[in-house]
């Protein structure tokens, strides 16, 4: 069992080297109270305990046998978790996940964007853990034939996706009837694609062919009162934090350019509205933490 303090960096480094990382038991939730945007796919199965998380500004309570697939680009925030919270985790590179999806019969994978969590039975959870064991054995096997190992991992990932699509079919029927759920996930996906070039709510409403006022009203109902603008600001601020965390020596001007802002002042004002502090202050706080 690995501990929470070292988990996240260890997982990220491993998946960047191997394309996939399998952990049978992690004690605690591998996301702090700070918003995190992952470049990879995170697959989670709760083994015991409970946790409360925010996924794209929606709150979820995670309990035993809850299974989740968190797509890349979406943000997570841990609200709380019990002392005994333990999960199995598989981290998959976005490229490998896309290839695995292409080998499945079901192609409605965008459902994980708006409904990432589903509840499994004890028997279903055992099946998932058995597959997890096989993938761990493949991923850790020292072989010179890297292409063979990747093909074996891909085939087992595709099998796992088919199982999950079958297990959550009843939940998917309920979500399919929700127009607001489709609107919400479509908006989130569009922001992830276009946030560097446009951060205006009307732009996204027009892309989806909705009246901006009607769109905002439906969005608030589904998001628990959050406006589309708040979602955009939170997402952009989270991306900015990720860049500054990964590149502490990078200037604020360079971060602003990377996020598509016309100048540094515009970015600083935007970041302050979203977070309550300027990016320079955020960088100082992060630096002081690393020195403690």
Your description of this structure?
By secondary structure, the protein is of the alpha+beta class. The chain has 13 helices and nine strands. It has helices at 4-18, 94-101, 111-114, 122-140, 146-167, 169-176, 179-194, 201-207, 212-223, 228-246, 252-258, 264-275, 279-291; strands at residues 20-27, 36-37, 41-48, 51-55, 58-62, 66-70, 75-81, 86-92, 117-119. The strands form two sheets. It has a five-stranded antiparallel β-sheet with strand order 1-8-3-6-9, sandwiched between helices. Strands 2-7-4-5 form a four-stranded antiparallel β-sheet, covered by helices on one side. The chain is globular.
Secondary-structure topology with pairs:
Elements: H1 4-18, E1 20-27, E2 36-37, E3 41-48, E4 51-55, E5 58-62, E6 66-70, E7 75-81, E8 86-92, H2 94-101, H3 111-114, E9 117-119, H4 122-140, H5 146-167, H6 169-176, H7 179-194, H8 201-207, H9 212-223, H10 228-246, H11 252-258, H12 264-275, H13 279-291
């Amino acid at each position: 069992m690995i501990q929470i303090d070292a988990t996240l960096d260890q997982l990220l480094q491993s998946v960047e080297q191997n394309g996939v990382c399998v952990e049978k038991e992690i004690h605690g939730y591998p996301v702090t109270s700070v918003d995190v945007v992952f470049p990879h796919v995170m697959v989670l199965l709760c083994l015991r305990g409970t946790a409360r998380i925010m996924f794209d500004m929606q709150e979820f309570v995670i309990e035993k046998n809850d299974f989740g697939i968190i797509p890349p680009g979406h943000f997570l925030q841990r609200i709380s978790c019990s002392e005994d919270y333990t999960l199995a985790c598989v981290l998959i590179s976005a490229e490998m996940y896309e290839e695995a999806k292409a080998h499945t019969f079901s192609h409605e994978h965008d459902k994980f964007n708006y409904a990432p969590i589903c509840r499994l039975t004890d028997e279903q959870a055992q099946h998932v853990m058995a597959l997890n064991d096989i993938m761990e054995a493949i991923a850790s096997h020292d072989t010179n034939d890297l292409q063979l190992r990747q093909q074996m991992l891909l085939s087992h990932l595709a099998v796992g996706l088919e199982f999950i699509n079958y297990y959550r079919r009843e939940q998917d029927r309920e979500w399919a009837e929700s127009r607001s759920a489709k609107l919400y996930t479509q908006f989130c996906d569009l922001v992830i694609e276009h946030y560097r070039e446009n951060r205006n709510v009307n732009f996204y409403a027009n892309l989806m062919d909705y009246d901006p006022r009607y769109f905002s009203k439906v969005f608030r109902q589904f998001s628990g009162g959050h406006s589309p603008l708040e979602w955009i600001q939170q997402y952009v601020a989270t991306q900015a934090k990720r860049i500054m965390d990964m590149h502490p020596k990078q200037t604020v001007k360079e971060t602003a350019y990377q996020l598509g802002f016309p100048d540094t002042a515009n970015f600083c004002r935007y970041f302050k509205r979203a977070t309550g502090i300027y990016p320079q202050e955020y960088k100082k706080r992060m630096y002081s933490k690393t020195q403690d």
